[in-house]
Specification:
Immunoglobulin-like, binds heme C, three-stranded antiparallel sheet, 456 residues, 14% helix, alpha+beta, disordered N terminus, 9 helices
Length: 456
């Protein structure tokens, strides 16, 4: 199978081979995608305030699976049965679907969750995301809902131990020491681009974002990936997602093309727009990180609504008149499913006062938030309404259809279809330990797209 020869040939090739494969390797676990919930978080009320009422398009379930460390390079390597076809321009879901020849997303997750070289104990193989969309003359609306055992709405914390403030910033699968706790926010990531803006897997490569989604951004030399190559890396501290078209001759992370070439791609819209909803670093002030992927995973221009906070002068603690405490008493961490209330400057925070007497186990957030200034800059121009109730996260993302910013794609389903891809971070995980979906199309009613946005 040197070349892609059409789906009939594909069917013949794989129909024979795959039943054996399925019997041997892939078991989907029945309890995988459901959760039992026993707690609640007191302070999330109001995060949905101001939610616009719209009529949504039909619900679509998109399954995010644990990808282990299977990068683009793995996809086109001899280890992947679909490699020749991926290299020839075939999309992942041509083979991988419930009706396809190759394992479905849920089956992939079940097989891969333990295949990571550093797996997270108890991590589920896949997460079903319910997605809906809508638009009106001005705005585009995206709704995503998924189950989790708990919401992560605190990113990291300080704890008062033995008379000192100790930083507690731990994520799975890191092992915890004495008095350490995990404190990582939950997230949903969304990448999208108009189908007509073809983003090739590399210069001249026949495959692209429409077919392979996130895998145009995921490489084996990235941070925590099998061939991590951060020595001499100049584009940041860690190698994050990038597009091969931003590398000379399709090279690796350290072969960046010059700024002129990058600007040309940006002007042509040859990049995935990326929204990154963060339970701890945005949800409480109803925003998310609006970014994009090109040479790196970047944020749009503008200020972050969060900053690092320390138990030191010039920083913040809770306002006792608003909260009833200067720092969260340690036992309330567990009461809130391992979360602390957000510390919001101008709302419930006052300047840190070192003369206050703190108690053993007291907690202060290591991030402080500010309410984004209106009109919002490009970094914050997606409004995010969120809630977590009875084990279900619901996040509604609302943005102007046309922001006028070069780092955003216009979102007008009436004019054409889009490719979307999603990721979920849960249970104190970060980095590569997310769940990811294959690409899925989004368009207007009657467009033939999988997610159909209702016109309002
Ligand atoms: C031509 C059909 C085909 C295409 C296209 C294809 N795959 Fe596969 N893929 C397969 C088959 C068949 C297997 C099962 C192989 C096995 O069990 O050894 C597989 C296995 C996998 C695995 C499982 C690896 C493991 O170790 O268990 C992953 C992950 C995967 N594919 C991801 C993708 C992604 C992502 C894409 C798109 C970039 C893709 N595949 C495109 C046919 C395909």
């Amino acid at each position: 199978m040197k070349q892609y020869q059409g789906s009939k040939v594909l069917a013949a090739l794989f129909m024979a081979a795959v039943p054996l494969v399925l019997a041997g390797c892939f078991h989907s676990s029945s309890s995988d995608s459901t959760t039992k919930v026993t707690g609640s978080v007191a302070f999330m009320d109001g995060w949905m305030d101001g939610l616009p009422q719209v009529t949504w398009g039909p619900e679509v379930t998109v399954t995010a699976f644990a990808p282990a460390q299977r990068s683009w390079q793995w996809m086109v390597s001899a280890d992947h049965a679909g490699a020749e076809f991926v290299n020839g321009g075939t999309g992942c879901v041509n083979c991988h679907s419930d009706a396809g020849f190759a394992p479905s997303p849920a089956e992939l997750g079940a097989a891969l969750v333990g295949a990571d070289e550093d797996p997270i104990p108890g991590k589920r193989g896949f997460v079903d995301i319910t997605v809906q969309a809508a638009y009106d003359a001005e705005k585009f609306y995206l709704r995503a809902a998924w189950q989790t055992k708990r919401p992560g709405v605190t990113h990291d914390i300080w704890t008062y131990q033995g008379g000192d403030w100790v930083r507690n910033s731990h994520e799975k699968p890191e092992e915890l020491g004495t008095d350490e706790v995990y404190s990582r926010e939950d997230r949903i990531g969304v990448m999208f681009a108009p189908v007509s803006n073809v983003i090739p897997a590399a210069d001249g490569h026949p495959n692209n974002f429409n077919n392979v989604g996130c895998w145009v951004t995921c490489h084996s030399d990235m941070h925590d990936m099998p061939d991590m190559d951060e020595a001499g890396y100049t584009l940041g501290d860690e190698i994050t997602k990038y597009l091969k078209i931003s590398r000379v001759g399709g090279g690796g992370a350290n072969d960046a093309v010059d700024d002129t070439a990058v600007a040309a791609y940006m002007n042509a819209g040859t990049f995935p727009d990326m929204w990154h909803f963060r339970g701890g670093r945005g949800a409480a002030v109803q925003t998310l990180t609006d970014g994009y992927v090109m040479s790196t995973r970047s944020s749009d221009s503008g200020a972050h609504p969060y900053a690092t906070n320390s138990p030191a002068p010039g920083n913040y603690m809770y306002d006792i008149d608003v909260m009833g405490f200067h720092a969260l008493p340690g036992d309330e961490w567990a009461d809130n499913m391992d979360n602390a209330p957000p510390l919001i400057v101008g709302v419930n925070a006052v300047e840190f006062d070192h003369t206050v007497v703190f108690n053993e186990g007291d907690i202060l957030p290591r991030r402080r938030l500010t309410v984004p200034v209106e009109p919002r800059d490009s970094r914050n121009d997606v409004t995010a309404y969120s809630s977590w109730k009875d084990g279900v996260w619901t996040v509604i993302m609302v943005r102007d259809r046309d922001t006028g910013h070069a780092q955003d794609h216009v979102l007008n389903p009436a004019a054409g279809n889009y490719t979307f891809a999603f990721s979920i971070f849960e249970d104190h995980s970060g980095g590569r330990w997310h769940h990811v979906t294959f690409p899925v199309t989004l368009g207007a009613t009657g467009s033939g797209a999988i997610i159909q946005a209702a016109a309002n």
